Amino acid sequence: MKVIEAINKADALNPNSYSTEAKIEWLSELDTAIFLNIISTHEEAAISEFNGYDTNSNETQLLVPSPYDSIYIYWLQAKIEYWNQEISKYNNAMAMYNTAYSEFERYYNRTYMPKGQSFKYFG
After folding, report:
1. pTM metric for this prediction
2. Which DSSP string do the residues of 31-49 spell out, in sequence order?
C-alpha cells in the first residue's frame, strides 16, 4: 500500500479535516517504529535504513505488506479519533491496530531470522 492509498482509505472511512501532511507524519511515525522495533532487529531485512516520509512521499510504498497493511488504516483512524477526543472510538481503533501490529510482528518473526546477540559470560 502506498502512503496516499492509506490516507485515502482512512479518509473514506473517517471523514476528517486533518491535513494530508499530518497524516503523512503519523504514517512516518508508525513506520519508523516498525523499522526500529521489528525490521532492523532481523537479518536479511528488506531495507537497511528508513528515514521517514515527507510531503513528497505520496507514491512511496509503506513498509508493511499485504495482507497486514490494514495496520495503517487502523493507525490513522486511531490518530483521528484521538485528536477528535472521541475516546471510545479511539480505543476501538487502537484495539484493531494492536491486533494488526501483533499479526505483522508474528509474521515477520516467523519469516526472518532475528539478529544474533553476543553474550558475555561471567564466571
Report:
1. 0.89
2. HHHHHHHTGGGBTT-S-S-
Cell of 64: 508493511
Residue pair 55/21 in contact (Cβ under 8 Å)? The answer is yes
Q: Are 66 and 82 in contact (CB under 8 A)?
A: no
| pLDDT one-digit tens code per residue, 74-117 | 999 999 999 999 999 999 999 999 999 999 999 999 988 888 76
Other Cβ atoms within 10 Å of 54 Cβ, number: 13
35 φ/ψ sector (left φ>0, alpha ψ -120 to 50, else beta) = alpha
The residue type of 44 is E
Give every CB contact of residue 72 below 8 A, 6+ residues apart in sequence.
1, 6, 10, 27, 30, 62, 64
Q: What is the pLDDT of residues 24-38, one digit of tens each?
A: 999 999 999 999 999
Q: Strand, coil or helix: what is 21?
A: helix
Residue 80 contacts residue 103 (beta carbons within 8 Å): no
